[in-house]
Write a structure and sequence with these properties.
The chain is an alpha/beta fold. The protein has two domains: 157 residues, Rossmann fold, CATH 3.40.50; 102 residues, no CATH class. It has eleven helices and seven strands. The protein has a seven-stranded mixed beta sheet. Helix 6 crosses helix 7 and helix 8 packs antiparallel against helix 9. It is elongated.
Length: 293
Amino acid sequence: MADYGLPYQGSKQGLAHKLMAILPAAENFYDLFGGGFSVTHYFLRHSKKHKYFHFNEIEPTTVQLIRDAIAGKYSYDVFKPKWITREDFFRDKETCAYTRIVWSFGNNQQDYIFGKDIAGWKRSLHQAVVFNEFDAQAVDFLMFKSFPEASSIKSRRLFVRKCARINKRLDLEQLERLEQLERLGQLERLEQLERLHLTSLSYDQVLIKPNSIIYCDPPYAGTTGYTKAIDHDKFWSWVRSNPSPVFVSEYTAPPDIKVVAAFRHKKSLSAAGQSDSVEKLFCNAPAFSALAK
């Protein structure tokens, strides 16, 4: 499966194709809690049921990261990612979405990606792959002193991945982070941008046009890890009163909100390791009527 949007904890890219099959046709598609952009990205690429796509995420630095990625800022042709230290991360994470998302553990936007005991040799590997700068640790790990000058970051990463299958001392986590970073570069290849509109507002501040459907993936009740919290009672009141069809991903909802579908999947970052969870798709009355047509 192709990657869509940013590397983002809670990304819906694994469910985007199922959502697209369920949600009805409309001229405008609104993704009001857009997060890492995966759902809007997928719909923009594949939906034939919608003409215009409105992505909204309340965190403005995340929206700016997406704008910058689409503009080509993170292409490896121009962007050579410097090593972000633990100090850099905690100093800059509130103002820089690139630092907060790409350099956080599990893309949770809160904790630095590496423990203190391993950050040193992770940096050595990073400098070798990104800048072709080898220190003694990099030479020891890779068993050579430099890459060919004309080699790309991606080709170096893929070569080191092959080496890692033989040299068990190498941890692929660092290479996976660089692979995730390539997803930012992929956004530069987005087409039909005249059909895409980006905003950074509260969900209830977005102006909804006629002939629209709305998708919401809000911070789930009783969960943590989001940069912005919401008033869930206020949100569900907004869902009920909205004249447009509204679909909501959540685990639970008030009894009067209808269930459209349920998706069972693995929660890999649960406290007990992997566990099954059932995520549901709810809708308001106009959405239920639209599905019945």
